[in-house]
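call fold(seq) -> tokens
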Amino acid sequence: MKIASNSIWREQVALALAGRVSIDERPLTTWRNAVYAGLMRSMLLLLAGCGGTSLDRGPTGNVSGVITYEGTPVQAGTIFFEDVTKGLGGHAKILDEGRFSTAQELPQGRYAVFVSPPLPDDPTARNQNSVETLDIPERYRSFQKSGLIVDVIAGQNQLNIELKK
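ret:
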């Protein structure tokens, strides 16, 4: 039984990553090669992830802003964004004065928005019994019902989101 040299293995991996050859086309003649193939598949899935890297998502934008409920800043919770065509998304924790900012840039596109109040035992919630955190209408708690749509463009995106009864 002949084992492929490391340089051949690297070449096969490079071809697989470039999409020219499937890893499954390589004969798995040894236990070592089977383990490497399994690790490579895991790495490829990990690299693909939920949204890939910023390199394959096109132009991206920073998303930040203020969220209010009936004119009063929401004091705690989480705001979620989901691209209506690609399913990619992001979220941001709602801070004091209703301010939020996504940790990662979002790809340019149109996003459905929904808001989740903090969990009752959320230790970071400032005033858990306030109207601003607990009485967010049910319709704003899902992408399908919220009716909130925002456009994210490349660069800085400053959003002011107003929730109404």
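The beta strands are 60-69, 72-73, 78-83, 89-93, 99-101, 106-107, 109-116, 148-152, 155-163.
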